Amino acid sequence: MTNKVTTHWKGNMQFESDNPNGKTVLMDTSPENGGHSSGLSPKAMMLSALAGCSGLDVVSVLDKMKVQLSDFRMDTYGELTEEHPKYYHTVSVEYHFYGENLDENKIKKAVDLSIDKYCGVMEMFRKFATVKTSIHYHNK
Q1: Is the domain of 71 the same as that of 26?
Q2: What Pfam families would the database entry show (predicted)?
Q3: Bridge partner list, 71
Q4: Are residues 97 and 110 in the same domain?
Q5: How far is the C-alpha of 46 from the C-alpha of 25, rounded, in Å?
Q6: Taking the mean position of all CA atoms in its chain, how far away is CA 125?
Q7: 45 vs 25, 123, 125, CA distance in Å?
Q8: What gap in Å lies between CA 101 and CA 1, rounded to an integer?
Q9: Do 91 and 103 have their domain in common?
Q10: pTM of the complete model
């Protein structure tokens, strides 16, 4: 299967990229790099894609397991190399789960399935970075 996105230059340092579902995203860079910070940075979008991919897996598996959450978020950190081309050499994904009487075993299983089996973006990251993950339970 081949995915295609089209990315158009919108002037200055802005680019708009579409998605196979028709949605678009605006990319830009910071003022110190000639942009206006009016869009998402491409490297930060990579971290968002990683969290989004894994998060979709986790929510889907937990739904099938009938696990209830009051909230769920992921904090994703990327450490860039010093020299050009700068890329993420180490990435950390922290999974934060909130709720009452959280079923930690089922949550861990859902996260592990995403990390080890389902998340293609995480597998791509492993090709060039060390990927670290952690789970944090916030019982109310």
Answers
A1: no
A2: OsmC
A3: 98
A4: yes
A5: 13
A6: 11
A7: 10, 16, 13
A8: 41
A9: yes
A10: 0.93
Per-residue pLDDT tens over the stretch 47-86:
999 999 999 999 999 999 999 999 999 999 999 999 999 9
How large is the average pLDDT for residues 22-44? Answer: 95
Kindly report whether the peptide bond that precedes residue 20 is cis, defined as omega within 30 degrees of 0.
no
Rama region for 134: left / alpha / beta (φ>0; ψ in -120 to 50; rest): beta
User: Which residues share a beta bridge with 73?
Assistant: 96
Residue with tokens 């003022």: 31
Residue 79's SS3 state is: strand
User: Tell me, what CATH number does 122's domain have?
Assistant: 3.30.300.20
Residue 5's pLDDT is: 94
How do the residues of the chain divide into helix, strand and coil, expressed in percent and rounded to 5?
Answer: 35, 35, 30
